[in-house]
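Review this chain:
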Amino acid sequence: MTDRINPTALPPETLLELLRKGGFRALAEDDIKDMAEAGMPANADGTFNLIECTAWLLKEVGGNGSEPDQA
């Protein structure tokens, strides 16, 4: 059986790993918590939807490539 991830229910650690691989290399573990407190959408069980988080991050950076104030 292969390990699969559910992009609609990522644990914070997995979201952090994927964001780092996607270019947010300077993110620390507390940054995910900080972003969630700043409004990044989270599921009721504390997991994250990769699509919703990506949309939130893009909105936060305003599409200009700069880092969000919260990160």
About this structure: Residues 31 and 55 are 17 Å apart (CA to CA). The longest helix spans residues 50-61. The chain is about 45% helix and 0% strand.
